[in-house]
Amino acid sequence: MVEADNSPSKPNSENPVVLVLGGTTIAFLIATIVLAVQKNNLSAESSSAALEVPMSNVPDNKFYDIASIFSLGDNKCDGTNPKFDNVDCIHVPGPQAGANVTKGYVGGLETDVEPNLKNYWQTAMCPVNVHWHLGTEHYSVGEYDENGNGPHGNVGLEPESGDAESYHDGHTEGVKDFANMTDDEVDSRFLAAEDHEVRGGFRCHHYDENDEKFTKPYEWKHCVHMEVGETYEVHWPHSAAGACGTVDQYQTPFYDGVFCNLDLETFSTLGPQDIASAVGVQAQIFTIVNDESYFYPDLIRGWIVDEQENMGQDVAYYTGSTTGTSRNNDICSAYTPITWQVDRKCHMISASSFDKLCYDMKLQRDDMSKDLHAHGSRELVKDSLVANNQARQLHEHEPVTGGDESELTAEQLRHLRTYGHYHKSSDHQEWY
Predict the structure, then answer these.
(1) What residue intervals traverse the membrane (predicted)?
(2) By CB neighbour count within 10 A (0-12 exposed, 13-18 middle, 19+ buried), where does 255 fall?
(3) Rounded to an integer, what distance in angstroms lies between the CA atom of residue 338 and that of residue 97?
């Protein structure tokens, strides 16, 4: 009789088949973990590499050597520029620009014409061009003045003179004189010259040679001979006679856009106030930085209005003329009076914002290539040629208070009182 084996059975783990299967499973698990780790490392490296690829807010389209992307056809504005000659300032053709727009300054030329105080988009006007000047043609104490700076320095104010009539602010020694040249001649000379020299105006106070965003070069794709760290005054001419809302709206030269739907016979019937109410310029001043956090994508439409960034908020209004280095305090523009709306503050803006603007300019029907670079700045207009109708629109949150003088240095006060008329803001109830 065989006795039953009541001893415990051997554990399955000692079974050879189980051992083989268990070992294989563990090997697969280890291999899977290793592969997962390697994949994660590769993904991290790929992400890191992707982040290192420079991104751009500006289209990189390469334009062929053509004047316009549109099919050739009649440009209704072409040649409408009346080409008025500059005149001797002695004959006082009308108030001139660019002027001192410091709060409290009033020009010395009596006029009964009032600037257009409305937003241009609230009128029949539309932008007909955009261009800019090296440095500023206007002057705003503490924002863009003789104490500003840039990669190539600044212009200064002349020493005090007993003869205000001969005063030439913003004069730069050693810079070529463009006063006897037309605007087209100045542009042609600029494009042909090796140094691309134009007369620079005043600079803003933002520039810092120790801050990379003011010194790091930017690879320009569309604008010509522009520079990071420099100050530029941008102008948007507007006109009620422009080809608003059509492919012919933007024109170079801007005079074609201003006079597009206005023949000389009709123009001759207009009074000075009619012109100042129907033609105007927005002016906004920028220091270019190589920093995408200052990117604004749509400069071609007009100046930037941003209450949080104080852009387009402190605006000076007056009537003046067209500008540029073919005019100075001896030779004046005959295109006057027109409304000027000038932002008193200087703002930082990315180089890519300008490059995007130049890209958009290349997309217009008219050839705007002569406005893809900075134009020269007219010297600051002397007091006797500046209209006395300066106005400043107050916002509801701004109280009317005195104390303007505390913002100015003794030298700046002397300058305003010697060559202009200085008024405290408390002397005015709503506009000053």
Answers:
(1) 17-37
(2) buried
(3) 9
Separation between Cα atoms, residue 194 and residue 295, nearest integer Å = 31
CB 115 within 8 A of CB 99: no
Q: Are 226 and 354 in contact (CB under 8 A)?
A: yes
Q: Token digits for 262?
A: 């206005």
Q: What is the pLDDT of residues 219-263, one digit of tens each?
A: 999 999 999 999 999 999 999 999 999 999 999 999 999 999 999
| Measured distance CA(407)–CA(295) in Å, rounded | 30
Token pair of 202, please? 């005043």
394 token code pair = 């107050």
Q: In the block, which residue shows the tokens 């295109």?
A: 335
Give the H or E element holding residue 126: strand 126-127
Q: Domain ranges for the chain, please list them.
A: 77-397+404-427
The residues with which 283 forms a beta bridge, in sequence order, are: 235, 342
| β-strand pairing of 338-350 with 279-289 | parallel
Tell me the CA distances in angstroms from 37 to 27, 29, 40, 47, 112, one per residue in order. Answer: 15, 12, 5, 15, 80
Segment 83-94, tens digit of pLDDT: 999 999 999 889
Residue 143 in contact with residue 206, Cβ under 8 Å?
no
The answer to whether 382 touches 329, Cβ cutoff 8 Å, is yes
